[in-house]
Write a structure and sequence with these properties.
The chain has 872 residues and is an alpha+beta fold. It is built from 28 helices and 38 strands. Helix 13 runs parallel beside helix 17 and helix 14 packs antiparallel against helix 15. The longest helix has 25 residues. It starts with 17 loop residues before the first helix and ends with a helix.
């Protein structure tokens, strides 16, 4: 043996191939040993190390299936994008002998950091919040250099450190859910409910589906309104302290959730008396009244002020407006909405039937839990919602990390988990049984069936949002009674017009009067006043400019924008970091910088997160190996066009939405664009600038697109269509000043799926508004909604004439008119057509323009029906 002396260390950095990486770390360690695979934004990373991609099968429908290795019998990796913060990730099944099947354990730190903080993070911001090393930033991507390798290694080090910090933080929580199964703050809330031993309401309360259907028909989201539009107004913005935990505490919702059982109590007379005999002061001074609010009532609306979900103005999507409502049929509403209507109109709604949900006893085996391993709550003896808010106030200064978590827990555990409906993106339509306001359930074909989440319970969800609307109605009543007005309200806040030394353009209150209103709400507070001084508090004092719901800015007397809404702008990428603030500075007339950026094309940046969008990229991917393709979870850019500038489309193409690959530093004017709906069609270039510059003479493949200047112009005149101007006409683009409630007269009811689904995608142009789930309303239900109006219209002619034209006997006509039977579809169509033609003749409009006969028949009934009834 020869002694060669000490061996010189090999200081070279050894890089391994993609194949070596997936064999060693993804297969041997990740899959076969079921090790945790962690990263930040895992879907993007996995798409980079794959060999190919196909559409995933259920339950990952509308997701991707990635092949990572050369051996086709091995499992693929499935990824289904849920939203910008989370995705489902899991292995497919394998048929390899002696190889276990596993879903896998994946921790996407983008998801985990959001779940723990309720704030979407980048790797940079997450590292900062969790006290990790900071990541570096290379000058350029895509070229392997020694500096770029250092950047990648630093990225892995920061991610590893972040994983350790996140795991350490999560392990403080004594909940029975592993970190790789955590997808949002709501997961933490449900985990704590499980740790307490709280049995999900749907499991322990034997309530029939028909009742749940009626409750869900009474469920509406938050109240958001603009009531003074297009004016610079001095305001005091007031905000309710933790609105949903507060109304939960007032209504005794924790007693209902921890009960052994729930009784459904017939309460028609007691609710009528409650609403009829009590006034605003009573709801401030007698908090016991609030315990009677968990319930629903069937009413016949007659000008009552109630939330109405409808297609206001020319929009194709549904919005909720709190308006005067009249309807010849019956509707179910949550009791707090009826209390609010009485306060705002002075009249008790016509209540035909009412039920309340009353807790019975207390379930066994509820256990104490240490929140974040620190502060102990006893669910048997404490009101969870009240306790969390008060405890946060106790520890805010001494234990800031615990206080931040209690804020997350209060926000996520007081409403969303009770309203959670999980939508199934199925490949084919499914037949389901429908329960809603009609007494008789029916079967319908739906593409996206919905199932309730673990702790979903409609009576709680509907009561919470209705009680929040009641709080705003009480605040509105106080402001109006004091002689004031308000600019906007948004879920839990209201901008009250504030009196200054100048003569007010709109009714305004002094600071002292606003303070009086705040003190009045103190009597309603369920909290310890030494910890929570005010249930209603001042959030901002300054000036406000509002355009429509959720479109407002707050600024100081010099016009410096200090807080602004991003609603309606969030789908755009923007040319610089502060562009949204600059948009608002332009709106209120205080912008002083360069405006050149306004004449550049308005761009959106989409993640290629669905197979449908990915397939449109085949025009660029065809003939290329997967490593050279535009991959899933890449970004693409999109631009928008006005209708008059859209190019002529090939036959059979239903629309146009121009997209291109990720631009990076490339000017959009130099890029090649394709139509998302016709990817194999023409290629386009785009131009911006002023509209008049490009109205004539453009080549067919040059498209005029919307610029940020046009976005600004459209944004600043977006109408608040669910309210009226001073003359009672619906608010239009150029309406300015105070807005008033519309009087909505319903012609009928349609049924929709979970309204929040895909709304962001619609706004961005990823899908059409028509793609949101609408549930076909059965013809019999439509007939029931139209019958009275149809026969009132047809009363102009004799029974004999009408029966002959409809092809039925006089006896059958009378049976249909009295509601003793329903018509054959052919007969129904004939009667509807006859009535619509007569109604349109009276209203002086074309029957060909009628989209829904219920609409024109309702309009006729309310404009011509009284005369017809008197003549009859």
């Amino acid at each position: 043996m020869r002694f060669l002396g000490p061996r010189e260390p090999d200081w070279r950095l050894h890089l391994i191939s993609r194949k070596q990486f997936v064999e060693r770390w993804m297969w041997d360690i990740g899959y076969k040993r079921n090790a945790i695979i962690a990263g930040f934004n895992l879907p993007f990373d996995f798409s980079r190390i794959a060999l190919s991609v196909t559409d995933a099968r259920p339950p990952f429908t509308d997701g991707f299936s990635f092949q990572l290795w050369d051996y086709t019998l091995r499992p693929n990796l499935r990824i289904k994008h849920l939203d910008s913060k989370k995705s489902f990730i899991g292995w497919t099944y394998t048929t390899i002998a002696d190889t276990p099947n596993t879903r896998g354990r994946f921790i996407d730190l983008r998801t985990a950091t959001f779940a723990l903080t309720n704030v979407p993070h980048t790797l940079d911001s997450a590292a900062d919040v969790f006290g990790c090393s900071r990541k570096t930033h290379p000058d350029t991507h895509g070229v392997i250099t020694s500096d770029y390798v250092d950047y990648c290694r630093n990225d892995v080090n920061v991610t590893t450190e972040l994983l350790a910090r996140v795991t350490e933080e999560y392990e403080r929580h004594p909940i029975p859910i592993p970190l790789h199964r955590v997808f949002s703050p709501a997961t933490l809330s449900k985990g704590y409910y499980r740790s307490m031993g709280l049995v999900p309401p749907l499991e322990k309360y034997g309530i029939d589906d028909s009742t749940y259907g009626r409750v869900m028909s009474a469920f509406y989201g938050a109240r958001t309104e603009c009531r003074i539009r297009g004016a610079r107004v001095p305001v005091t913005l007031v905000d309710f302290t933790s609105m949903y935990p507060t109304v939960n505490a007032l209504m005794g919702m924790w007693d209902l959730l921890k009960a052994r059982d729930v009784n459904i109590v017939e309460a028609t007379d007691s609710i009528r008396e409650l609403i009829d005999t009590h006034h605003l002061d009573d709801y401030f001074t007698n908090r016991n009244l609030w315990h009677q609010f968990v319930g629903i009532a069937r009413i016949r609306p007659d000008g009552d002020v109630l939330p109405v979900r409808a297609q206001y103005g020319d929009g194709s999507t549904y919005n909720i407006g709190v308006n005067h409502l009249t309807y010849d049929g019956d509707l179910w509403y949550a009791i707090p909405d009826l209390v609010a209507s009485k306060l705002l109109t002075g009249r008790t709604p016509n209540i035909l039937e009412a039920i309340r949900f009353v807790p019975v006893g207390q379930q066994d085996e509820l256990k104490k839990v240490a929140l974040r391993g620190d502060t102990v709550i006893d669910p048997m003896g404490s009101d969870f919602f009240k306790w969390v808010i008060e405890q946060r106030a106790r520890v805010r200064d001494t234990k800031p990390a615990l206080a931040e978590f209690l804020k997350v827990l209060a926000n996520s555990g007081s409403y969303g988990v009770f309203a959670e409906m999980v939508r199934d993106d199925a490949l084919t339509e499914t037949t389901v049984e429908m329960f809603s306001a009609p007494d008789t359930p029916w079967r319908a074909r739906v593409r996206h069936p919905e199932r309730p989440g673990q702790y979903a319970w409609p009576p709680v969800a509907a009561s919470i949002t209705a009680a929040a609307r009641l709080m705003l109605a009480m605040l509105e009543k106080c402001v109006l009674d004091a002689g004031g007005s308000w600019v906007f309200c948004d879920t839990d806040s209201m901008a009250i017009c504030r009196r200054t030394d100048d003569d007010p353009e709109f009714p305004a209150l002094t600071d002292a009067r606003i303070d009086d209103i705040i003190e009045r709400f103190d009597t309603l507070s369920p909290y310890d006043r030494s910890l929570i001084p005010h249930v209603l508090k001042k959030e901002y004092v300054g000036y406000c400019y509002a355009i429509s719901s959720k479109r407002y800015a707050l600024f100081d007397e010099n016009g410096k924008v200090e807080k602004y809404s991003e609603h309606g702008l969030g789908h755009l990428k923007g040319p610089h970091a502060e562009w949204k603030r600059d948009i608002w500075s332009h709106v209120i007339g205080t912008y002083e910088g360069s405006s050149e950026w306004l004449d550049t094309p308005a761009l959106s940046q989409w993640s290629v997160s669905t197979p449908r969008l990915y397939r449109t990229l085949n025009v660029w991917n065809q003939g290329k190996n997967y490593p050279d393709q535009i991959k899933p979870f890449n970004f693409v850019s999109a631009v928008y066009m006005r209708p008059q500038h859209k190019p002529r489309l090939r036959q059979g193409i239903r629309g146009i939405q121009l997209i291109t690959g990720y631009l990076g530093g490339t000017s959009p004017l130099n890029a090649e664009w394709i139509n998302k709906y016709d990817p194999n069609g023409p290629r386009y270039t785009i131009t911006g600038g002023n509209i008049e510059d490009d109205m004539w003479g453009n080549a067919p493949d040059v498209v005029k697109v919307v610029t940020y200047r046009e976005v600004l112009a459209d944004y600043s005149i977006h109408p608040e269509a669910k309210f009226a101007d001073a003359h009672g006409e619906p608010c239009g683009p150029y309406t300015r000043g105070r807005l008033y409630r519309l009087h909505v007269r319903l012609g009928g009811i349609d049924f929709i799926g979970k309204e929040s689904n895909k709304v962001d995608d619609v706004q961005a142009g990823l899908i059409d508004a028509a793609d949101l789930q609408m549930i076909a309303t059965p013809g019999d239900i439509k007939w029931d909604q139209m019958r009275d109006a149809i026969f009132l219209v047809l009363s102009r002619y004799t029974t004999t004439e009408n029966a002959r034209l409809a092809g039925i006997s006089r006896t059958e006509y009378h049976r249909l008119q009295s509601g003793k039977t329903r018509p054959h579809p052919q007969t129904r169509n004939a009667l509807v057509t006859m009535a619509v033609h007569i109604a349109c003749e009276d209203l002086k409009r074309s029957p060909r323009l009628v989209k829904d006969p219920r609409t024109v028949l309702a309009e006729w009934k309310y404009t011509c029906g009284n005369a017809a009834t008197n003549a009859k």
